[in-house]
Amino acid sequence: MKDLTELMKQAQAMQVKLQAAQAELARTEVEGVSGGDMVRLTLTGEGALARLTVDPSLMVPGEGEIVADLIIAAHADARRKLEARQTEVMREVAGPLAGMPGMPKF
């Protein structure tokens, strides 16, 4: 019975750590850039677009496709950074159990 009690304590401690990690990620913001910093955007920890900045020099007639491509590239950059941060936080929480079946994923 002692082993079961200890296991339950460990599970509760991990749940507290997971909730703290989720709160930290919710406050996280990552920035993606493209076109030599001509396009910048910020994603929240939930993946929502918080800010978008486009260099005024791109705002000329006939450049719409280029601007769209740069926004997509900046978004992809930010998503990669966000996913890396989420993975890093989960590894800190789960320790040696990270990646095992049944462990939460972001």
Which features characterize this protein?
single chain; 106 residues; alpha+beta; Ybab, Chain: A; 3-stranded antiparallel β-sheet; 2 helices; 54% helix
Describe the structure.
- The chain contains 2 helices and 3 strands.
- With 106 residues, the chain is α+β, with helices and mostly antiparallel strands.
- The protein has one domain (2-95): Ybab, Chain: A.
- Helix 1 runs antiparallel to helix 2.
- The protein starts with a helix and ends in a 12-residue tail after the last helix.
- The relative contact order is 0.16.
- The model has no long low-confidence stretch (mean pLDDT 86).
Summarize the structure.
The chain is α+β, with helices and mostly antiparallel strands and 106 residues long.
Name the average pLDDT.
86
The name of the CATH architecture is: 2-Layer Sandwich
- Sheet with most strands: strand arrangement: 1-2-3
Q: Which of globular, elongated, flat, extended, rod-shaped describes the shape?
A: rod-shaped
Number of DSSP strand runs: 3
Write down the domain tally: 1
Q: Residue share in helices?
A: 40-55%
CATH superfamily: Nucleoid-associated protein YbaB-like domain
Sheet/helix structural class: alpha+beta
Can you write the helix and strand succession as a string? HEEEH
The CATH topology label is: Ybab, Chain: A
Largest sheet, in brief, is:
3 strands, antiparallel
Radius of gyration: 20 Å
CATH class call: Alpha Beta
CA(first)-CA(last) distance: 33 Å
Poorly predicted regions: none
Strand content: 15-25%
Number of helices: 2
